[in-house]
Design a protein that fits this description.
With about 180 residues, the protein is α+β, with helices and mostly antiparallel strands. It contains four helices and ten strands, in the order βαβββαβββαββαβ. The strands form three sheets. Strands 1, 2, 3, 4, 5 and 10 form a six-stranded antiparallel beta sheet that branches. β6 and β7 form a beta hairpin.
Length: about 180
């Protein structure tokens, strides 16, 4: 009997260490088990931190679409294991981190479980999630609205910049022109 796959959207972010390398390795780690298959990977954007303590470095953010046979809470445990592999520390809420991997959607599942609220409770307000997601799935909707339209209305939309893949020695991207 074949297993059924569910489409999930996972947002990744990093603002400590070798951010670009961490994101690349994290994608490979997330789709390493046969229960998780990569469908699409967004371009990376650089953003100012949203929430959390002041003075944090900028984030690199991206979104991947996967299909998985893992149940939602097992996928969450897998995301946490990948975060730990990349030395994620959870000292301060929304604080600096080597890696953040959040499940944004898991099929059409709606859940208010405190361990895994789906869709992600703040995704509809975060351009750093919505904009990259719209690039890999322009027809995607969240809460009945296109993710690209939600991105344009998000408070952090003006702070997004494309990331060209080059960082200086301090882990900060060079000047990049906005489209």
């Amino acid at each position: 009997m074949s297993q059924l796959y569910t489409r999930a959207v996972i947002a990744l972010g990093s603002n400590l260490g070798e951010r670009n390398d961490t994101l690349s390795a994290a994608v490979a780690d997330l789709v390493d088990p046969p229960e998780v298959r990569l469908l699409a990977i967004s371009p990376i954007v650089q953003t100012k931190p949203v929430g959390g303590p002041p003075g944090q470095p900028d984030f690199l953010n991206m979104v991947i679409a996967v299909e998985t046979t893992l149940p939602p809470l097992e996928l969450l445990r897998h995301c946490h294991a990948v975060e730990q592999k990349h030395l994620r520390v959870r000292d301060v809420r929304w604080g600096p981190r080597t890696l953040d991997a959040d499940i944004i959607t898991y099929g059409d599942l709606v859940s208010s479980d405190p361990d895994l609220t789906l869709p992600h409770p703040r995704a509809a307000e975060r351009a750093f999630v919505l904009y990259p997601w719209s690039l890999i799935d322009p027809a995607a909707e969240l809460n009945g609205e296109r993710v690209g339209e939600l991105a344009a209305k998000a408070p952090d939309f003006a702070d997004l910049t494309p990331f060209d893949g080059f960082e200086d020695v301090h882990g900060v991207a060079g000047a990049v022109e906005r489209p």
